[in-house]
């Protein structure tokens, strides 16, 4: 091993001598490079190889290359690159090859090699890297796309890119992304050839030696890709993705027409097809020249375009009366309404249109929970409060088991300060099961705190503890404790705490809240704090290290505390804590003893 390392270090000497001779590095720096290289070489020649050692070595060589580059820029010396940089680059490629040969499954390592090749313009080496990487990671479409893009955009080789895409499709015959990028590549190739031909014709050059196929120039290769893809991959999203790519090129009108006709023929019942056809009316209008038009004319034209879109959507909801279709229609209307405009007339029309569509969807019983929420918000924002109340009531009739719908209706009533809030709460509790009612109880008690008497609010808290699921009652206990302290004082909250402790489950915050309340008293008693800590530890002592540490801190810092109890608490903690928590507790306790916690 030593002989091999010595040989590799000797191979470095010519480049290092050149660095010193041309004044890029000093003799002292050359020795430092040799020492570092020797240490790194020993690490990668060991029997038990580590990936980190190769990465560190590569990083060192890359940093060395960057330093040489900066020194050249500073001194203005640009010769001897073949003797200096070339040998370092070859060494880095060798390190990458060894590393990727050993850890073949590490994609990030391969991508690092690819990035290095791109950075230093090593095209021939990069081609080899892609070839080897794709042989091993043929199951990753993204790598095939990366390689094909590089062939097309950097090496300007459409044939190589096409060959890679065809190979990739043999491995992934139903990968939408591969087909999309292949489709894009063929269109880019056609555009490139069209530009070349145009430039040659403008220069009046003879095109005899250049073979420009009319089929390729007209995008026929892309058409073949599209037809093959549409047979294998179903779905409107894929068709629309190809159509959006085709629209980026100005010579694909016939291809766009074919995709559109196929879309309408094969997916006539899909909401996304109708959504696209409706939104297309906006684009068709925007293609017309709009120079020298007045503001009023622009508003009028935009109104007409939007009305054409809505006419298509109206036809769509008749042809495909589904919840998704109404969602597409409403989403379009909301998008248009939220667009900024200086015309109050246009904004008012958009609002009326949107509210009308919401109403029609509601009458068809095809409005989702989320859309009811958006409808309500729009009504409230537009100051239609009475209508908002009606819509909220209708929403709870349609979704009587939805806590979110009831919560939304109640929030509207509370916001408008209606008299029937309590009645609505009672109605909600009749329809809802105990599970999932926590948001409603939380809202009810918060509203009651600001509206009803203390007695009514307390009765409501008591009722909520029995009406909610055990896991949800934990939150209500915390809120009840906090409200009682704020409104009824320390003695009452202490009695309540004792009462609530009779029924599990509890949360840690419940106990911490009571501990905090005790600490806020002028005559804070350690006896009471011990009681609260002991109760908390019975529930959470096996899973929470901080609780034990806080207890110990309390004994050490409280005027009535007993530091001699700390040893006993520590011993109990070591017995109760589970698994890795013991080690965590020991380290934190040590920090506490040394005054670092």
Automatic annotation (TrEMBL):
Domain called U3 small nucleolar RNA-associated protein 6 N-terminal: residue spans: 9-91
Record's keyword annotation contains Methyltransferase: no
Domain U3 small nucleolar RNA-associated protein 6 homolog C-terminal: 307-577
Compartment annotation: Nucleus, Nucleolus
UniProt keywords, alphabetically: Nucleus, Repeat, rRNA processing
SMART domains xrefs: HAT (SM00386)
Alphabetical list of InterPro entries matching this protein: HAT, TPR-like_helical_dom_sf, Utp6, UTP6_C, UTP6_N
Record Pfam families: U3_assoc_6 (PF08640), UTP6_C (PF24892)
Single GO MF descriptor: snoRNA binding
CC per GO annotation: Pwp2p-containing subcomplex of 90S preribosome; small-subunit processome
GO biological process: maturation of SSU-rRNA from tricistronic rRNA transcript (SSU-rRNA, 5.8S rRNA, LSU-rRNA)
Entry's family note: Belongs to the UTP6 family.
Protein name: UTP6 protein
Organism: Hippolais icterina (icterine warbler)
Upper taxonomic lineage: Eukaryota, Metazoa, Chordata, Craniata, Vertebrata
Gene: Utp6
């Amino acid at each position: 091993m030593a002989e091999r390392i010595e040989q590799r270090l000797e191979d470095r000497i010519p480049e290092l001598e050149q660095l010193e001779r041309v004044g890029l590095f000093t003799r002292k720096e050359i020795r430092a490079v040799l020492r570092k290289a020797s240490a790194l070489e020993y690490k990668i020649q060991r029997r038990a190889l580590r990936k980190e050692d190769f990465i560190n070595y590569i990083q060192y060589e890359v940093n060395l290359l960057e330093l040489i580059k900066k020194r050249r820029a500073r001194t203005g010396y640009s010769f001897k690159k073949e003797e200096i940089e070339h040998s370092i680059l070859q060494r880095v490629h060798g390190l990458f090859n060894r590393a990727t040969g050993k850890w073949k499954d590490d994609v990030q390592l391969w991508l690092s090699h690819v990035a290095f090749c791109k950075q230093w313009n090593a095209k021939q080496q990069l081609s080899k890297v892609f070839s080897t990487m794709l042989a091993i990671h043929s199951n990753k479409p993204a790598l095939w796309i990366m390689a094909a893009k590089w062939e097309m955009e950097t090496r300007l080789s459409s044939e190589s890119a096409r060959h890679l895409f065809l190979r990739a499709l043999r491995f992934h015959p139903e990968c939408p992304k591969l087909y999309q990028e292949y489709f894009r590549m063929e269109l880019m190739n056609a555009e490139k050839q069209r530009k070349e031909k145009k430039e040659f014709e403008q220069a009046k050059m003879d095109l005899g030696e250049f073979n420009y196929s009319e089929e390729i120039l007209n995008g026929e290769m892309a058409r073949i890709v599209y037809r093959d893809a549409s047979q294998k991959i179903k779905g409107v999203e894929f068709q629309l993705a190809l159509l959006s790519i085709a629209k980026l090129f100005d010579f694909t009108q016939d291809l766009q027409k074919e995709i559109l006709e196929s879309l309408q023929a094969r997916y006539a019942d899909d909401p996304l097809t109708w959504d696209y056809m409706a939104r297309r009316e906006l684009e068709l209008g925007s293609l017309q020249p709009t120079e020298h038009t007045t503001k009023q004319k622009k508003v009028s034209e935009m109104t007409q375009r939007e009305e054409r879109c809505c006419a298509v959507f109206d036809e769509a909801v008749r042809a495909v009366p589904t919840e998704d279709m109404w969602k597409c229609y409403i989403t379009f209307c909301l998008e248009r309404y939220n667009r900024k405009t200086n015309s109050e007339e246009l904004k008012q029309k958009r609002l009326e249109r949107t509210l009308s569509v919401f109403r029609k969807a509601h009458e068809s019983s095809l409005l989702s929970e989320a859309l009811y929420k958006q409808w309500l918000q729009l009504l409230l924002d537009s100051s239609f409060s009475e209508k908002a109340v009606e819509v909220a009531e209708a929403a709870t009739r349609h979704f009587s088991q939805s806590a979110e719908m009831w919560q939304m209706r109640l929030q509207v009533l509370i916001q408008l300060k209606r008299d029937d809030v309590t009645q609505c709460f009672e109605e909600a509790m009749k329809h809802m099961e105990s599970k999932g009612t926590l948001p409603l109880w939380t809202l009810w008690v918060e509203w009651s705190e600001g509206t009803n008497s203390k007695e009514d609010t307390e009765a409501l808290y008591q009722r909520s503890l029995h009406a909610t699921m055990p896991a949800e009652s934990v939150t209500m206990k915390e809120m009840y404790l906090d409200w009682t302290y704020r409104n009824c004082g320390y003695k009452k909250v202490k009695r309540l705490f004792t009462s609530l402790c009779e029924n599990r489950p509890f949360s840690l915050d419940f106990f911490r809240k009571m501990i905090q309340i005790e600490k806020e008293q002028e005559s804070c008693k350690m006896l009471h704090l011990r009681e609260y800590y002991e109760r908390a530890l019975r529930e959470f002592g096996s899973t929470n290290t901080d609780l034990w540490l806080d207890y110990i801190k309390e004994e050490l810092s409280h005027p009535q505390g007993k530091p001699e109890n700390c040893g006993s608490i520590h011993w109990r903690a070591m017995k109760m804590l589970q698994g890795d928590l013991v080690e965590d507790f020991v380290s934190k306790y040590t920090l506490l003893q040394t005054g670092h916690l």
